[in-house]
Design brief:
Bound molecules: beta-D-glucopyranose
Number of strands: 29
Helix content: 25-40%
Shape: globular
Radius of gyration: 26 Å
Strand content: 15-25%
Distance between the termini: 52 Å
């Protein structure tokens, strides 16, 4: 058989011709990245590679990588709210993977941002499952359009890094369905990712890698998933239980004892041979899909991908605050700009860990600001603070390559001197742009953050600069929410630049000087204090358990329900233009089926072209269970010229009105009133309407016992 042309028919024949030993060998990898080949049957390996915002392919030396385009991280891409952009980034990622001979790209990551403390929040899109599921769908479709498989991860309820391999997420059934599984459901059913990666953690006591309910009953039986389930790296603890549960491919696969364990279990009857056959068939099908994509070195247009990285980063920038239209900076009215902060010279591009990418090139913010400021404005720089964590994390920022190099580069001045020099420069400048943010050590895999404040050195710097007579503009480089100190009230403008990859430096400079009109919106609430966050008392848990005590009230759902004011709400982001929303037009086309069309017109009433993301929220004020005040159900990013209007129509279905009733194991839409609200953020609601729907006739009426979950 020609290994390059394995068709579906061939796969069936191939499977039938394999011995049990050969089938079993397929169920774990050959090494860290490749599947097991079966040379006798002409079956090659395929290769998997991280993921998610750029290809991380090792050179052969552990944790040393080939250069690849470092696109904005998922948290930054999430704030674009732009499906078309996610699709294009996915296509580019797929093309780079394909060129490198990687057949499965290990992304996107779509776990919910339950707490800003999660060290991997930079790898995740959102605190909302509809938002994450929609953007991930576009990303997966983009990657897979290039003949490369995507891998949706980490399935499921992997919302912290503390004790990630053992911690049990204790979550009630309704919260699981409505929040933690809903994003996965959306992308699995809409985009058919080639693979799904099970997570490290346990869910209600059971490791995801051996959870039959999760991997078979939910994923396959309910959602109809036909692709392969891959383990997270070293997430399997019970090999036999994992295969029986529906785990197809264990990665990495350098433990040959594994095969013996499975063979013995089949021999003793502890594991039905069917389970091995089924998993082997799925791995074969995956290898079959991956085969056409062999390495095509040199086929990536690196410059074009850098331009896309810039464009993508520009769509992700969120303008949080802009007092008296400080931004864009008016070059004609100023002579001097102070740029302050280590991250202006050595930008934070991304977080650390398996998602780290070695960028093909990096736009430095200081250079980009200097270029954008033009010849008539003098730009001067001061360090302001130092990020000492970068000493140990050389490499992934693209500017420091050798371990130890950063240590040697340390500026010998004390923190006080750095602040004093920065203050002197700011006082002598018309405008001061400070690059602040989180150190790389606060945003990396395998550990969570200890708090949400900026590092003390940066807080001291910002406090000192807030007292200076200059126009203070602060740019944040962070992959998750931060608390903003008292300086916040004094800054004229605040820009969330995110961890926006290798084009982020360019993108923010374009926003600062107005070549790009910002259009990003937060996909994660910024709290005033850590104590205000929904999981504050229940994160990261204790003694191996973390209780999801806030239930479905994650993110904005919590702030809306408790009345705790966030610093910046979910969905918030300003523009240099203004948008007007018309009243809603609502048409209930089939009340029994809950089919509803909601439309409105959005007009650009300012003088610049700009983009607005219209967010549609649904609330069910009276329900048998406590429901969020409103939940995001649809959104659309519109691009509007000055004076232009566009009509947008959202199509809602039954599920958009339903809650998950654990007792009857059904999605339940109750009769009564629902509130539809179109907003520019989750709190800036511009148009609302109420509708009344009947009970869903397909679902038996609710009885008290249903909601107790007490029925067998
Ligand atoms: C991470 C995954 C990653 C894998 C391979 C694991 O530790 O959790 O997200 O894809 O390693 O690097």
């Amino acid at each position: 058989m020609n290994a390059q042309h394995v068709s579906t028919v061939d796969l069936a024949t191939l499977l039938a011709g394999l011995t049990l030993e050969q089938k079993v060998s397929l169920l774990s990898g050959l090494d860290d990245w490749r599947t097991q080949p079966i040379e006798a049957a002409g079956l090659p390996s395929i290769e998997l590679g991280d993921g998610p915002h750029g290809l991380r392919k090792e050179t052969g030396v552990d944790m040393v990588w080939y250069p690849a385009t470092c696109f904005p991280t998922a948290s930054a891409l999430g704030s674009s709210w732009d499906r078309a952009l996610l699709r294009r980034v996915g296509e580019a990622l797929g093309a780079e993977a394909r060129a490198a001979g990687v057949q499965v790209l290990l992304g996107p990551g779509i776990n919910m941002k339950r707490s800003p403390l999660c060290g991997r929040n930079f790898e995740y899109l959102s605190e909302d499952p509809v938002h994450a599921g929609e953007l991930a769908t576009a990303y997966v479709q983009g990657v897979q359009s290039r003949g490369v498989g995507a891998c949706v991860k980490h399935f499921a309820v992997n919302n912290q890094e503390t004790s990630r391999r053992w911690v049990s997420a204790e979550v009630d059934g309704r919260t699981l369905r409505e929040v933690y599984l809903a994003g996965f459901e959306r992308v699995v059913t809409a985009a058919e990712p080639w693979t799904v990666m099970c997570s490290y953690n346990r869910i209600n006591g059971v490791h995801a890698s051996r959870d039959h309910w999760l991997l078979t009953e939910i994923l396959r039986d309910e959602w109809g998933y036909t692709g392969a389930v891959v383990s997270d790296w070293d997430a399997v603890h019970d090999r036999v239980a994992a295969v029986a549960a529906g785990l197809d491919l264990e990665m990495p696969g350098n433990d040959t004892a594994n095969d013996g364990v499975l063979l013995a279990a089949v021999a003793s009857g502890a594991l039905p041979q069917d389970a091995v056959d089924t998993a082997a068939a799925r791995v074969l099908a995956l290898v079959g899909k991956g085969l056409p994509a062999r390495a095509e070195p040199g086929t990536v247009d690196t410059e074009a991908h850098h331009r896309l990285a810039r464009e993508a980063a520009a769509q992700c920038v969120v303008l949080l605050r802009n007092e008296h239209a400080t931004l864009p900076v008016d070059r004609a009215s100023i002579a001097t700009i102070a740029v302050i902060g280590e991250y202006a010279a050595r930008p934070r591009l991304q977080g650390g860990g398996s998602a780290g990418v070695l960028p093909t090139r990096v736009d430095l913010p200081l250079d980009e600001i200097t270029a954008a400021a033009g010849d008539t404005v003098q730009v001067r720089y001061e360090l302001g603070y130092q990020d000492l964590s970068r000493v140990d994390l050389a490499g992934v920022d693209g500017t420091v390559r050798e371990p130890g190099a950063a240590a040697r580069d340390r500026d010998p001045r004390s923190d006080e001197d750095l602040v004093a020099d920065a203050v002197r420069l700011a006082a002598a400048s018309d405008v001061t742009i400070v690059y602040a943010g989180l150190p790389l050590s606060a945003e990396e895999e395998a550990r969570d953050r200890a708090g949400i404040d900026l590092p003390a050195g940066q807080e001291a710097l910002l406090a000192a600069l807030a007292a200076v007579d200059t126009t203070l503009i602060v740019v944040l480089s962070n992959g998750s929410a931060v608390a903003l100190g008292p300086w916040h009230e004094r800054c004229a403008a605040l820009v969330a630049g995110g961890l926006a990859g290798q084009g982020g430096g360019w993108a923010v400079a374009q926003v600062l000087f107005g070549a790009v009109n910002p259009s990003g919106k937060l996909a994660e609430t910024y709290p005033v204090r850590l104590q205000d966050t929904p999981s504050f008392l229940n994160f990261p848990g204790e003694r191996g358990q973390v209780r999801y005590g806030e239930g479905v009230f994650i993110g904005y759902r919590w702030y809306d329900a408790t009345g705790i004011a966030p610093r910046y709400p979910f969905g918030h982001g300003l523009s240099y233009t203004t948008f007007e929303y018309s009243p809603l037009r609502v048409r209930v086309s089939d009340p029994d089926a809950g089919t509803v069309e909601v439309s409105l017109t959005v007009s650009n009433t300012g003088s610049r072209a700009g983009s607005e993301t219209v967010q549609l929220y649904v609330g069910d004020p009276e329900a048998a269970v406590r429901r969020p005040v409103r939940e995001l159900k649809a959104f659309e990013k519109l691009h509007l010229q000055p004076g232009e209007s566009q009509r947008v129509t959202f199509h809602l279905g039954n599920r958009d009105f339903a809650f998950y009733d654990t007792g009857s194991a059904l999605w339940r839409r109750e009769a009564g009133e629902f509130i539809l609200a179109a907003g520019s953020s989750s709190v800036d609601l511009r148009a609302q309407a109420g509708i009344t729907l009947p009970d869903d006739p397909h679902i038996p009426p609710l009885i008290d016992d249903d909601t107790l979950g007490g029925r067998p």
